[in-house]
Every structure is written in C-alpha cells, then in structure tokens.
Write a structure and sequence with these properties.
The structure is a homodimer. By secondary structure, chain A is an alpha/beta fold. Chain A has helices at about 15-20, 25-35, 40-55, 60-65, 85-100, 115-120, 135-145, 175-190, 210-220, 235-245, 260-270, 305-320; strands spanning about 70-75, 100-105, 130-135, 150-155, 170, 195-200, 230, 250-255, 280-285, 300, 335. The first copy, chain A, has a 6-stranded mixed sheet, sandwiched between helices. A 5-stranded parallel sheet of chain A has the order 2-1-3-4-5, sandwiched between helices. The interface between A and B is large, with 58 and 58 residues. Chain A binds a DNA duplex through helix 2 and helix 4.
Chain lengths: ~350, ~350
DNA sequence: CGCGCCCGAGTGACCGGTCACATAGCCGCA
DNA sequence: TGCGGCTATGTGACCGGTCACTCGGGCGCG
C-alpha cells in the first residue's frame, strides 16, 4: 500500500499517496496544496478530500530541498531573561506564527563574542533569515558578522550610522523621544538638572536615550552632568548609584531601565534619602513589577512587542515583497507614578 | 563546474563537489562528515581538506529527507516573559546548543487552548521532539494533546499521577520541599500560622507548593488557613492580597512567586501594615529584582536553568539512549532577606 | 600455496516534494 | 473546418544527502 508504518508507528503519507487516492497525478496534488489557480474545482475538492482522509501533511524537508524557501527564521539575542529582549521575542514569535513561520532562538553569550564560524553554525543553513535583537554589544557584534547573503533585520536601540550595520533593515523604538519625555518631566518638577545612569552602550555612538536626555537638558538650559555607566540588572544599578546618591546635589536620576531603577532606589534608601521628597527616580520599559515597587516607579512604557512584530514584518517583506507592511509600534508613553516628585530647592 | 551561484549569490557546494575535489566517491565524503570509522586516515584528511577548501556545509533538509533524524526540538511554553519559563527556556537552549540541536519556540496563548490540529501545525513535522514548559494550565493541556508519536519531555510543577501526562518523561524542581522550607522559616520566626497565596493551579491535583506548605503547617500543628487563589503577576497578587492583609490576624503570607509577593507587599503597605514588623512576606523564584525590593524579599531560589538543562538531557536520551545523563538541578535554597521577621504575638 | 575474510571504497536507488516541459481537450475565430 | 491558444493535467528529472549493496585487494591461516 505504499504507506508502511515507519519506526515511530505513524504511517508516512506522501503526495503520491494522496494522488492515488484522488485519482490524479502527484503534481496536481502539489498544485492544490500550494493554492495554484489552474486546478478545476471538482478536482481540487477531490484532492482536498483525499488529503483529509489520509491525514496528509507536507514534508518540510522535502519542500525545502526541492528549492522552496523554508518558512523559518532564527532570532539571535543575548539574554532572554531581560524584559526588553523577552518581550521583543514574544512579538516576533506572535507575528511569525500568524504568518506560519517557525521561530528558532539562539542565545548569545553576554561576554564571549562569537566569531563568524560559530555564527554560521548557529544558523543551520546558509541563507536562513535572521532577526537580531541588538540592544547590546553582543547583538551588534553578531549583526556585523552575519554573512552578507543572509536576510537580516535588527531590533536596535537606534539606527546606526556606521557600516555595515546600517546597510540592513532595522527597527527601533523612539528612545530619544522617550528619554526626552522623562527628562522634561523631571525638569518640570523643579529639578535643577537630571542625572543619567546609562545602560552599557551597544556601539561607539552616543546612545539615543543619552541623546534624548541631553536634548531635554539643553532645551531647558540645565547643567549637563557626566553620564554614569551602569549595567542591565538591579545589582549593577545599585552598585553604580551608591556614589551618586551620596551626593545631595543629585536630586533626580533617570535610569537606563526599570531594573536598574529598582537598584538605584535601594541604594538611595540605604543612603538615607527619601523618594520622591528627597530624590526622584525614573526608569524605562514599564516592567510588570514597576507599578508595585515602593514607591511605584515612574517610567516610560516601551512597546517591545510591537517592535518584535515590526521586525518580523520587515523580514517578511525582505523575503517576499508582497507581504503586508508591518503595523507601527506604539509611541513611548511616560507613566508617572510615585517615584518622581517636585523639587523645591535645597533650602526647603 | 556544478556549483553555479544560486540566486543569493552563494555557490552551493554539495557532497559530490567535495568528492570530486578529493578524488573520492560521494559516499566516502558522507562517511567522513558522519565520523564513520571505516575510512583510511589519508583519505579522511584529503576529504577534510576539500571540505575546508570548498567551504562545504551539509544541507539539513537533504539529510533529514534521507532519513537522518533532524537535530532540532520545539519548546512549547505559555509565557516567555515570566521568569520561570524564560529561565527554563534559557537552560534548554544552552544545553541544546551544546549538543548542536536547534531550538524552536512556540508560545501558547494563556487563555485560548489550542486543539490537536493547531498543535500539530506548530510542530512543523510529525515526530518533531518537544519540550513542554507545563507550569500552567495551557502547558499541561498541550502536553495532553500532543500526538503519541512525538518524543516529549515536560517541565512540570510536579509529577502528575494522571494519565496520559504521567506516561511521558518529566522533570521538576522540588517545589514541595521549597514550600516547606519557607513555611518552616516563617513558623520558626514565631508566626502562629502562614497564609498561602497560590499560583493558578496547572492541574486538578493539589499543587506541590501547597502540599509543602501544608506539610510544614501540620508538622508544627499550626492552623491551616484556606488557600487564596491568585495569578502570576504583581497585579494579581496585589488584588488578591487586599482582603488578606486587611485581616490583622494574618501575620505571614507565602506567595506563589516573587512577582506576586511584590504585589502583596504593596497591598500591605496601603493597608498600613509594616513589613516585616507587622507582616512577613515570602516568595518563590528569587528573581533578580527580589533583593532590591523594599524591603528585600525573602524567597526560595529555584534552579530553573538547571531544570531546562535537565529537560533537554532527558529528551536527548529519549532520542539517543547513548546520550549522557543530565546533571541534577540545584536544590531549592531559602534566601532570607528583609521581608520576613519575628512575630512576638498580637500583644506586642 | 590457496582459500576465505575483512577492510576500505564505490554504485545506484531512494527520501518527498517542486520545477520545466509535454500533452489532451476545448474554445473562438478566420 | 482547421488552427492557434488557453486551460487542466500528467511525466520525468532533480534537489543533496543516506542507505543497502557490491567490489577489489591484502592478510592470516591451514
């Protein structure tokens, strides 16, 4: 009968089995499953019935081998446990699944940068489409090393002017605007200036958040304190902030993300400073716990899932120009909570 | 020359090109790339040189089509932004990459349970190996619906006695012990009893954390308050706890995870209760921000990455009995911080 | 010295799709 | 009525590996 049970017990049914069942040629079956138009309705229905009856499922490997593009992509990211990366991944997966693409994940080491060979090995086949979540240095580095023949889209902190990164499609959130929002909010509360505790920069360029912060400072004619470099985690925020919060002239701190802000708030408490009366703290991302911290964190909500969906959309269009244009992401939104408050001057 | 550049510009080099270059047959090349023993050293070296020279990379699709098992697996999980699931995924990916398996991710909707057909569609090919992160109902549901012929390993909250879930290999952390640890700690501080704010249960059975909590309560002869059902997020913890913390006889609350605990702590503050003097709160997981909350959260650290590695190891052995046994996970470890404190009775 | 065996290597079919091309039937139109 | 062209379908090769065989030659052994 041609459909002998294989080792796992499941009978493997091929298009030729379906063809025999429907009384047509295997090619006609191929046309039906690919939605080709030149098939008579009656024939199409017969084939579809046979497919249902036999429980036929096309074999991806065979299809790919025969030259059809595989509907799959690989996401290269450096740390899936960080909120931004995890949410972006979710967005990619969601959009990809809707377009019936399979999503593979490959996690980059935060410290050991892979070389070209390793990167190629992670990609399974040459030409495998890739989305790089390049918020940090390992991601940007990987983006740089990706072979020229791979279709690549990057989620970046900001569009880079430096080659060859800029030659590939990119998506980003308006971090500059987000930072400016938050900074203006703090200045509007009466703070003389705002200190900025930055995330590790992904490139040599000035980060967009830093830029937005400077934009707002300059627009207000406020002093520009030096940027403090931190990390991604609460711990690094805590460590970096201990010095900062000991300085009573620092009255408002903008943090690279909400996790860092949590660390900063702790350092502030330990230094005997009271938030927000005595010190204002704001973050970025609006992680789920932000609203429940003590005090609840003022932050800028960033649409990472939308960013992920956009990345997939861009990649899809790269592979198939007929694919629909991706929906735009939400604009960054300042969420004012309890961790920022008015400043009435040192004398108060 | 047989290696005409394809559309993307990359010349496709096959096993036969390598064979020609090395002056051997294509089968010998196949033997070399599969590490087959019956190849003379001189021949092997010649072939390897040809592979390097030509930059040959085996074609996965062809290999799979020809009957070789694909080194890939799919992770089915319901929410990659939750710490436990994200960390488990990381562990799986890490171990899988070390064994050169590709990892695909498919995210289950928290509310809409997929049917068999949808699940099959997510799996690309019949027989695709799967790891299900089944900490919650959608995961357990998916586990139940997976076709019998797919190799499946599940990361579960606890081993289930109910068929057919139990017939598949499973890995779990010792949640019962973890809960007992935390409960004993609280009872040891002088609390008359401990209230438990549970996660949504994944099955009809009594959850292991609930069980461990009851174990400790019973061993101490403490009263057994009813379990309060909550969710996974800070918000659900906050909402569920508002009633609980209004009751002054509640002096210690164990929360299903750290996120929930953060919500509970907020509800407690709003109710005018002071942690830990007035109310003790503990969680599970030890998320990165736990140590930086106000107050720093007492919690039980769980080795989710180890769990993920174990899951992969189990799956690997399922596919290839010669694969090495996975390393054991770390035991749950109680991390005492500031959110739990002694209770001296209502009179104090 | 002759036989059989094993090692190293080669040959051709096959996996399950797709593609390019061939072909039969039907229509309209000159 | 004959012919071109279109539509619906069939035929066979091919993608790049692997598998089951075949085959030749060197060696040990009786």
């Amino acid at each position: 009968m041609g459909t002998a049970p294989d080792a796992s017990g499941a009978p493997t049914v091929t298009i030729r089995d379906v063809a025999r069942e429907a009384g047509v040629s295997h090619q006609t079956v191929s046309r039906v499953i690919n939605g080709h138009s030149a098939v008579a309705d009656a024939t199409r229905h017969r084939v579809e019935a046979a497919i249902d009856l036999l429980g036929f499922r096309p074999n991806h490997a065979a299809r790919e081998l025969a030259g059809k593009a595989a509907r799959s992509l690989t996401v290269l990211t450096s740390d899936t446990s960080l909120y931004g990366a995890a949410s972006t991944l979710r967005g990619i997966e969601e959009a990809a699944r809707a377009a019936s693409f399979a999503v593979a994940v490959s996690v980059l080491d935060r410290h050991a940068h892979p070389d070209r060979a390793e990167l190629r090995a992670r990609l399974a086949r040459p030409g495998e489409p890739v989305v790089v979540i390049a918020f940090d240095a390992p991601g940007v580095h990987a983006l740089r090393l990706l072979p020229a023949d791979t279709p690549v889209v990057a989620a970046v902190e900001h569009p880079s002017g430096s080659e060859p990164v800029s030659s590939r499609p990119q998506a980003w959130l308006d971090d500059r605007l987000a930072a400016a929002h938050a900074t203006r909010h703090l200045l509007g509360l009466g703070h003389r200036t705002v200190h900025y505790l930055a995330l590790p920069s992904s490139t040599a360029d000035v980060a967009q958040r830093t830029q937005g912060w400077l934009d707002a400072l300059r627009a207000a004619g406020a002093p520009e304190p030096p940027v403090v470099e931190g990390g991604w985690t609460p711990r690094t925020g805590y460590l970096a902030a201990r010095e900062l919060v000991a300085d009573r002239s620092v009255t408002a701190v903008l943090c690279g993300n909400d996790d860092v802000a949590a660390g900063v708030m702790r350092a502030a408490r330990e230094a005997g400073r009271h938030i927000p009366d005595d010190l204002s703290v704001a973050g970025f991302d609006d992680v789920p716990v932000a609203a429940f911290l003590a005090p609840a964190l003022t932050t800028v909500r960033l649409d990472f899932e939308g960013l992920g969906r956009t990345c997939f959309g861009l990649l899809h269009r790269l592979l198939d120009p007929a694919a629909p244009a991706p929906d735009p992401c939400d604009e960054p939104a300042l969420i004012v909570r309890e961790s920022t408050g008015p400043w009435h001057g040192a004398g108060e």
